[in-house]
């Protein structure tokens, strides 16, 4: 579930990681023949922190002008009060809010090797309400060739969102280069292992480590949205239960910056030991509570929580209950994978949520009798470093399992006994059936990273000088699937091949060369006489 893109330029590899809760970037300057040494940007210097990622949050002023990103955005917004805070536009963890929304985002990233100087999102309509709320009037305009970010997110992170949108922006600012998406790599014995990546979402992959260290994907990436953000949500719901919906809503409205500070403090608690926790009660929340009754009375009827001289003390048993939904969802997803007959020897935990002792202990308790549970010392860094390694050498993932059935729309001679009457059309060459779904690769089919499949077709008119190829994907059972306009079939891109030399009429051979095994699907259309055109889009 994160927007990851690797940019390869000469001897430099830059990786941008756009996660639900945290974002960052890594890079390598070593020569191609030298051993790679990924380096990470450190964040939080101005706020006395030093971390490999920064919170995915962004702040705009009342005129929707970019102010700051990450820790600096948080710090600035936390300091605001009253009307000043309500007049600001503050996003945090907004990527998850884009699920099921059809919008088109343009990312402009101006960056150097030392720091990202700006991160600006422009939408055809404003995305956020002042005070942090998400507006609902989202733009439905998008380029049909470049699938919109939200549609990629709707397919969930395991379909690797992002490269096309980012390529568009980087060519605009003169940074065009080959773009790939990362995989997390592991140093294990040559046996299948499951990789659990987690932060705002849970992403599960299954790979076999081959001789030489390359990975073979055994099961298409899967997961759910029950990551660390689910735990944060439970904490917030409990605070609302303590202070009442009315008081909390008023507090959230009058002091949004202070409320966000409190929620950030809570999000950090997920990494603490399995013990009681103390949450500092923000000043204005305490003052508003005292206006209604003695603050201790808010805690009298609730179990697992007490007032502790300016702090809200929550028992470790209550804290564990906030993790329950997330842990149960993770357990269910992992068990579904294990039931499929893979001999999995390792479960590797990576991502920000993996720093939680409660999560690590739960996975160990549930699965240590079947697998060895591993977690690197710096799980937040593992994904970005692995992505840089992958950007240097895409062959590290030798093969993948196709997450979808891909097809191209073709026209065939109309047959009344087979085809729908409404798909019939006539040209100078006779009667045709339009929009036939021609399968290129099937869901769960293994595809090599550098394997190119070739397909041949011919024009449908003798004097046809331009040929359009439209590509589609689906997750539905394709038995009985015939047309591209049936339910569950999604258009993902199209290309137009110019074919100006028509002397051979309909006998001209048009070739499609398609690579499915990389993080992007690459299509090359070739006119046997003159033309050639290429299209890359996310796989």
TrEMBL record:
Gene3D superfamilies: 3.30.420.40, Actin, Chain A, domain 4
Residue runs in coiled coils: none
InterPro entries: ATPase_NBD
Residues annotated as transmembrane: none
Protein name stated in the entry: Heat shock protein family A (Hsp70) member 12A.1
SUPFAM superfamilies the record matches: Actin-like ATPase domain
Organism (species): Haplochromis burtoni
Domain of life: Eukaryota
């Amino acid at each position: 579930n994160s927007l990851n893109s690797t940019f390869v330029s000469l001897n430099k590899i830059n990786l941008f990681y756009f996660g639900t809760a945290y974002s960052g970037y890594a890079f390598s300057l070593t020569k191609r023949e030298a051993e790679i040494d990924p380096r990470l940007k450190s964040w939080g210097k101005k706020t006395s922190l030093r971390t490999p990622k920064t919170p995915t949050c962004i702040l705009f002023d009342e005129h929707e002008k970019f102010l700051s990103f990450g820790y600096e955005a948080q710090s600035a917004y936390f300091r605001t009060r009253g009307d000043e805070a309500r007049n600001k536009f503050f996003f945090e963890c907004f990527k998850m809010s884009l699920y099921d929304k059809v919008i088109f985002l343009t990312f402009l990233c101006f960056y150097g090797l030392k720091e990202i100087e700006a991160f600006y999102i422009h939408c055809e309509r404003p995305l956020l309400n002042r005070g942090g709320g998400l507006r609902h009037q989202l733009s439905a305009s998008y380029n049909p060739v470049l699938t919109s970010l939200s549609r990629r997110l709707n397919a969930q992170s395991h379909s690797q969102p992002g490269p096309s949108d980012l390529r568009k922006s980087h060519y605009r600012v003169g940074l065009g280069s080959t773009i790939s998406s990362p995989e997390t790599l592991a140093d294990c014995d040559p046996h299948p292992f499951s990789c659990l990546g987690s932060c705002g979402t849970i992403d599960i992959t299954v790979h076999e480590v081959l001789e030489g260290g390359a990975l073979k994907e055994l099961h298409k990436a899967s997961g759910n949205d029950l990551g660390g953000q689910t735990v944060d949500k439970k904490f917030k719901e409990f605070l609302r239960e303590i202070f009442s919906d009315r008081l909390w809503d008023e507090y959230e409205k009058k002091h949004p910056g202070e409320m966000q500070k409190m929620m950030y403090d809570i999000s950090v608690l997920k990494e603490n030991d399995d013990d009681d926790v103390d949450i500092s009660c923000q000043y204005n929340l305490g003052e508003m509570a005292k206006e209604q009754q003695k603050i201790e009375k808010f805690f009298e009827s609730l179990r697992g929580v007490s007032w502790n001289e300016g702090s809200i003390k929550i028992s470790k048993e209550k804290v564990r209950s906030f993790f329950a939904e997330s842990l149960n969802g993770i357990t269910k997803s992992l068990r579904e994978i294990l039931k499929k007959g893979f001999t999995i020897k390792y479960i590797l935990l990576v991502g920000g949520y993996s720093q939680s002792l409660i999560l690590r202990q739960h996975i160990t308790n549930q699965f240590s009798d079947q697998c060895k549970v591993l977690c690197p010392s710096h799980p937040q860094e593992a994904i970005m470093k692995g992505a840089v390694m992958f950007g240097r050498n895409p062959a590290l993932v030798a093969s993948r399992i196709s997450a979808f059935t891909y097809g191209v729309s073709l026209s065939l001679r109309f047959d009344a006994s087979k085809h729908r009457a409404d798909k019939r059309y006539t040209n100078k060459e006779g009667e045709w059936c339009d929009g036939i779904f021609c399968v290129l690769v099937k869901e769960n089919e293994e595809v090599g990273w550098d394997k190119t499949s070739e397909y041949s077709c011919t024009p449908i008119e003798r004097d046809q000088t331009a040929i359009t190829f439209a590509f589609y994907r689906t997750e539905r059972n394709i038995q009985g699937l015939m047309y591209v306009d049936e339910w569950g079939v999604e258009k993902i891109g199209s290309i137009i091949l110019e074919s100006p030399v028509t002397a051979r009429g309909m006998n001209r051979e048009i070739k499609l060369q398609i690579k499915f095994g990389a993080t992007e699907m690459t299509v090359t259309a070739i006119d046997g006489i003159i033309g050639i055109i290429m299209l890359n889009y996310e796989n």
